[in-house]
Amino acid sequence: MHLYAAANGAVLSVSGSPDDSTARRRLADHRIECVAADPRAPDRAFCGTFDAGVFRTTDGGASWHAVGTDALPESVTSLAVSPADPDVVYAGTEPSAVFRSPDGGDTWAELASLSDLDSASSWAFPPRPHTHHVRWIEPDPTDPDRLFVAVEAGALVRSLDGGETWQDRVPSSKRDTHSMATHPDRPGRVWVAAGDGYAETDDAGETWTTPTAGLGHGYCWSVVVDPADPDSVLLTAASGPMRAHRVESAAAYLYRRADSSEGGGESWERLDETGLPTGPGATRGILAAGLSGGECYAANDRGLYRTTDFGDSWDRIEVPWDGTRRTAAGLAVVE
């Protein structure tokens, strides 16, 4: 086991096993927003901060150094590594823009301007006196030129040419997307967790559906697909942002859905008392797929957890985790 966990007080590099793990804690002086890494280069990871841009480690998390200081804004809100090439890295920023590195973070250049899209004038992020930002970047594992980008809040847009041009939001897409998932065995399928609900597409974003039977909470935060079974999905959700994010009023939940047929599938089931803290006192969980069937990792204010049966049971990963400060921001699994 080797993973990187981003939280609002540090970035952790965790290795070992759930009951015998070691953790390196770094970048404690920065406001951590996101983390990205790739199993093809497990010792290299990228951490986005709101106050100092992107940091990179090449030694498994022992040390981190700023990269892209001549090109990137200081507020980096999302990161992604290309499934087609581990040296290609994307960064989303506030204000909303997407940057690309072709060489593992050494150099960066902005892709086509998102602000030229017609819907850009309606984008806004009310909770703080700044502006909208790129919350999530999802490169398509079946098409290296296709990118999905979530602007919080206002649009889910896509590019079919590697970011040279962007296609604006479509009427059926979500406006407040928090995370997305794709799977190499489901070309054209994208799963979306959004503040305005859950959605998925089977035609690479041309149209979207909202299969929500059994989903009792509409403020969705994190979505992940079983690495060995693209018909099985996990989702974290709450009744609203206060219940999702604020420790003192938190009440977030975990749901699972299995598609048994095209266009509908099974309804969502809520997974309670599985070993992963949910309900009152638990903030929205961040999910990340593991590398084998049924394996998934989760982080919330209570700590880090791992399942090997895709949500039926969870084991706590024993690392230092102060729930009053460790609101999870991101996970990246590399081993």
Automatic annotation (TrEMBL):
Residues 164-189 are annotated as: Disordered. It comes from the Archaea. Residues 171-188 have a biased composition (Basic and acidic residues). CDD domains: Sialidase_non-viral. One of its GO terms (biological process) is xyloglucan metabolic process. InterPro entries: WD40/YVTN_repeat-like_dom_sf, Xyloglucanase_GH74. This is BNR repeat-containing protein. It comes from Haloferax prahovense (strain DSM 18310 / JCM 13924 / TL6). The lineage of its organism: Archaea, Methanobacteriati, Methanobacteriota, Stenosarchaea group, Halobacteria.
